[in-house]
Amino acid sequence: MTEPLRIALAGLGTVGAGVIRLLDANGALIARRAGRPIEIVAVSARDRSKDRGVDIERFQWVDDTTSLAQSGADVVVELVGGSDGPALTLARATLGAGKSFVTANKAMLAHHGLELARLAEGAQVALKFEAAVAGGVPVIKGLREGAAANVIERVYGVLNGTCNFILSKMEAEGRDFAEVLAEAQALGFAEADPSFDIDGVDAAHKLSLLASLAFGTQPAFADVAASGIRHVLAADIAEAAALGYRVRLLGVAEADEAGLFQRVHPHLVPVSHPLAHVTGATNAVVAEGNFVGRLLFQGAGAGDGPTASAVVADLIDIARGEFGPAFAMPADALTQQTAADTGDRRGRAYVRFTVADRVGVLAEIAAAMRDAGVSIESLMQRGAMADGSVLVAIVTHEGPERAVAQALERLRGSQSLVGQPLWMHILG
Q1: Helix, strand or coil, per DSSP, at residue 279
Q2: Which one of 127, 251, 299, 344 has the fewest beta carbons within 10 angstroms of its own beta carbon?
Q3: Is 206 a catalytic residue?
Q4: Nearest-angstrom CA–CA distance, 183 and 163
Q5: Alpha helices in 325-426 (DSSP H)
Q6: What pLDDT shows up at residue 344?
Q7: How far is CA 116 from the centre of its chain?
């Protein structure tokens, strides 16, 4: 067997410790599959004395994480996180030194992926990031390799486990968002500051990477229209269920002559669709190819074991000499597409209003919809809330999104509305 592939590991949190445990447990099998052993030789983290449940004394300790590129390793694995700062410095230094780089850092790749891909190609080394999207689910490899012969027409899915845990818990127990969020934080599914997850930013980072892989476009995180789930009520979920839908936060991307469309938004998903049955902290991605048809990738989207599995899978590829361009084609071949105008997109919508309980409110809403050219399929009004307000929910017929946006603009500032309306797209 040839010389081992030597690894420098930056970050010894949950995933970093998981990588060490995985290599310890499955080292012999991994060596057989890789054709050579994979060995960690150097590590770095903020606190050397912290008990991580794994033995790190056998590895060289490097105080300055950004200097791992100068260690004796062949590959640097970055599990520090952050779109800039030490992670980006380490990535640039590693690739600049002619060493391969493996990361789980979707934020850094969403912002700087094109630059890093060019550096890797210039140095003829690998830039790999299977763990950056959907944890242990091999969706990056699936798009980059398995579906490489296909024109991908659409890629979409449940990309954030925290949001999916909250929504499926609300669905199962009829509880409201704030209460379930507090439980998710207590269980460790949500951060103390959950904004990154519940406002759709995490899913937007991942979607921009999937879109680049699927459509051969430059990563365009700045063009992702993202909104989250903080305004979804238990009543919305109950209403969706009565209509034959489940509420899921979806990232959706398409590319055509109109431009690159990327959006993270809560959707009503038909119960007949596989994504309606994705519950808990699970991730799932659907890719639709012109020859292969619909592909579904589903599994654990986070956690030490699944994410470490994805990291080590990338290391096995590198040990085999399987590099290839980071985004499925050379960086200079990735096109720069303008963001699509969503106003012309056609679809059905669910719009929920919280209104004052008085005569004329329904007529005011219906008039705004009529004047904007929105055709109403159904309208539901539910009993008074604790504060005396009433929920009114509308499902529209298929039509241009611009019309719904104009209707909501007409109602802006109305004394009949209590709070902002909630607009959810219905997955077609």
Answers
A1: coil
A2: 344
A3: yes
A4: 12
A5: 361-372, 401-411
A6: 87
A7: 20
